[in-house]
Specification:
54% helix; two-stranded antiparallel sheet; single chain; mainly alpha; 3% strand; 2 strands
């Protein structure tokens, strides 16, 4: 049975060397920036792009994903917002479509890894500040 490290192996796109550090941002051999990890989960049963475009009708993307209650809330919320203020309705409609496309689709570990990488890059600058 192959180990999980060989199944999920990463390689540098510039020199082809295997990347052995899980959170690496740069290749240790050539220094080239490494491509980001997959942000979208492979375990979802729906398509984010389809959910986004179905949300042209507010809530239909959530309904497609099986989130019936959220679909009803989004439909009435966006409809009310359009009646109250068209710019507010449009903004809420965009948020609705983004929520339908990406809620549950973005891998939490990819976001956490990105946040850790950004924090580690910001740390030396913060450490240099005088107290």
């Amino acid at each position: 049975m192959p180990d999980s490290a060989s199944i999920n192996a990463r390689f540098c796109s510039q020199c082809g060397q295997a990347v052995t550090v899980l959170d690496a941002s740069f290749c240790k051999e050539c220094g080239a920036p490494l491509a980001g990890t997959l942000w979208l989960s492979q375990e979802i049963s729906w398509r984010p792009v389809t959910a986004f475009f179905l949300s042209l009708v507010p809530g239909l993307g959530q309904f497609y994903k099986g989130r019936r209650g959220a679909a009803i809330v989004w439909f009435f919320g966006v409809t009310f917002a359009y009646q109250a203020s068209p710019p507010l309705g449009f903004l809420l409609h965009l948020i609705c479509a983004g929520n339908a496309a990406f809620a549950g689709a973005i891998r939490e570990e990819a976001v956490a890894r990105s946040a850790r990488a950004n924090a580690s890059r910001a740390l030396p600058a913060a450490a240099r500040r005088p107290q």
